[in-house]
Amino acid sequence: MVALATASAGLATSAKDRPEPGLQGQTMQGEAVVLAQPYAKGLRRIGHDSIRGRDTNVQLAWVDHCAYVSSTAGPFPIIGTLKGDPALTGVAVIDVSNPRKPKTVKLLRDRGSAASLEVLHAVTAKGRKVLIAGAYHGGAHAAGTSGAKEHDPAAQGAWLDVYDVSDCANPKLMSEVEWPENSHSARLSPDGRLVYGTNLSPFTGSGGIQVMDISDLAKPHFLGKFGATKADGSTFEFASHEVSFSPDGRRMYAGVNASLGGDLNIGIKLLPPSQKSLGPDGGGVYIFDNTDFVEGRADPKLRLLGTMPGGGWHSVVPARIGGVNYLVGGAELGACPGTWPRITNIADEKRPFLAGEFKLAMNQQANCPVPTAADRASGGIVPPPGTATLHYNAVDSPVDTKLGLFNFMWGGLRVVDLRKPAQPQEVAYFKPGDVCTGHVRFLPESGQIWVVCNASGFHVLELSPRVRAEMRRQPRKSL
Asked: Domains of the chain (ranges plus CATH)?
């Protein structure tokens, strides 16, 4: 049984809170802009950097006390980037050694980092600290908006930049290498030695995972493009948006928009693009055995273990709640009612099932405004300014999960108690008015959260002492 959580858990309002007006996640008329004072509850902002006033921010990565924020190449209205000053694009390196005074110290503008959008990731692993950034628009078979050259007329090759960030505020470019095809997103393995790039054709289901060996940061070596291999040894192509890994790297979780395996989008037409095919019920999640790559075996395969239709094709992350393994995933974009995160139980990897989902009040159809002509023209896949719709999922810890950290674009960052997966409940939020996107960092020692929004910039938030105290209690009480 799946519970739909839409209440804000009865959070008591403190003098430091500024509750949002209207319904949960609703943007009031004229407020789909950077607000002079953000709406917030259960969170307070302790540090902020405007990233030189640009409105092109997309993805967030981090190592040690540094944050890295990617950018678009210019205007990108679908995520609220209207100005897109080309002089300010690139990966911003932000020194957060003083979380109350974070500061952009430089912009990385190499061939991969100049306009990397969703192709950004960093890891700290034994003996290395690595940052990667890739040309989102570059290379053959670029998908969807990544293939729209008007966003980046200079895009040519599918470049991947590899940086040593042992000194995190001073990334050192170790190599630039070109993927054979476009990588829409890229993730480092937990040990920082492999890069997995997603190549996808979202409306045909073709694509696969490109893998680059960066064991030697100065000499990347392409291993190949891999499909999904079934138990019978047959392999099929699939269009994955982003992948994540178990802490040991032996499991890979892929958000999959479509595939040639015949197991997703049953009864759903991929063309023309629609809110149904790109919404919560479209695509799904693949669970792979990634051991061949971890152990460096010859002729490696991504071995398909399980499939969860509707489990979240855009972004999926592992979670462990009460000793049970789950995945938290979601689709992206979409006009009201938009998209939202879903929680999949993977205790039996071959038989995953939907355990719960979290909706804001504005993700209920009954609360949606009348569709505009633009909504109808786009098939409902383009969110009008002010829409509360999911972009990326994150959790506080993949091994002891208590909180979900969900960027709902104009709905802001929503912090959700996941300890009862069938009844997720909001405990805090931060809503600056503009579009909040990308991955989110949680620092358990301090209760601080790093989040980026496209125009307001980089924010350091802190959970209120009351929320932190209540989250330490078992069983969960009403906050």
From this structure: 69-385+393-405 (2.130.10)
Model confidence at 400: pLDDT above 80? yes
- Strands (DSSP E) found in 135-291: 158-164, 172-179, 185-188, 194-200, 207-213, 221-226, 228-229, 235-236, 238-245, 251-259, 284-289
For residue 159, give Cα distances in angstroms to 43, 181, 218: 38, 10, 15
Mean pLDDT, range 392-418, rounded to an integer: 98
Per-residue tokens: 149: 């050259």
Q: What is the pLDDT of residues 113-152, one digit of tens each?
A: 999 999 999 999 999 999 999 999 999 988 877 766 666 7
Residue 77 φ/ψ, nearest 5 degrees:
-60, -30
pLDDT in tens, 436-467: 999 999 999 999 999 999 999 999 999 999 99
Burial of 91 (0-12, 13-18, 19+ CB in 10 A): buried
What gap in Å lies between CA 361 and CA 456, rounded to an integer? 24
Residue 279 has pLDDT above 90, yes or no: yes
* Contact status, residue 64 vs residue 129, Cβ threshold 8 Å: yes
Q: Which stretches within 220-329 are classed as H helix? A: 275-278, 291-294
Distances (CA, A) of 78 to 72, 94, 410: 11, 25, 12
Beta bridge partners of 308: 285
User: Where do we find the tokens 């695509």?
Assistant: 283
Q: Which range has the worst mean pLDDT, 204-218, 322-336, 364-378?
A: 364-378
pTM: 0.95
**Tokens (6 digits) for 128:** 């290395």
Which tokens go with 385?
């300014």
pLDDT the model gives residue 9: 47
3-state secondary structure of 3: coil
Sequence-distant (6+) residues with CB within 8 A of 459 are 45, 47, 48, 430, 432, 450, 451, 452, 453
CA dist., res. 263 & res. 403, Å (int): 31
Name residue 5's beta-bridge partners. Answer: 358
| Residues in CB range of 29: below 8 A, 6 or more apart | none
Residue with tokens 């969110």: 383
HSE on the CB side for 207, CA within 13 Å? 30
Residue of 24, 1, 10, 3 whose CA lies nearest to 357: 3
Alpha-carbon gap, residue 411 to 339, rounded angstroms: 12
